[in-house]
Amino acid sequence: MNELSLEELIVSIVEPLVDFPEDIHVSSLKKDEQVIYTLSVNAEDTGKVIGKQGRTAKAIRTVIFAASAESSKKVQLEIAD
């Protein structure tokens, strides 16, 4: 899966969870063997994306990791405050 479709996947997962879908922004930073995606949402939606004890964020990361399994690069998802 290419990087653009991973960004689209992140948005499609997060969009139903938030009250302000227009404030969803995903950026990527490429390093040697790693791609770091940074997800930012409206401040009021941050708790919804993280979930209780981080369960929702962990589930999102699991899906992204599985979707990028074919890639030779390690994929990481960070959620901006």
UniProtKB/TrEMBL annotation:
InterPro entries: KH_dom-like_a/b, KH_sf_prok-type, KhpA. Its main location: cytoplasm. GO terms for molecular function: RNA binding. The keyword Cell wall biogenesis/degradation applies. The keyword RNA-binding applies. Gene3D superfamilies: 3.30.300.20. GO terms for cellular component: cytoplasm. GO terms for biological process: cell wall organization; peptidoglycan biosynthetic process; regulation of cell shape. It is found in: Cytoplasm. Keywords: Cell shape, Cell wall biogenesis/degradation, Chaperone, Cytoplasm, RNA-binding. A probable RNA chaperone. Forms a complex with KhpB which binds to cellular RNA and controls its expression. Plays a role in peptidoglycan (PG) homeostasis and cell length regulation. Belongs to the KhpA RNA-binding protein family. Forms a complex with KhpB. This is RNA-binding protein KhpA. The gene is khpA.
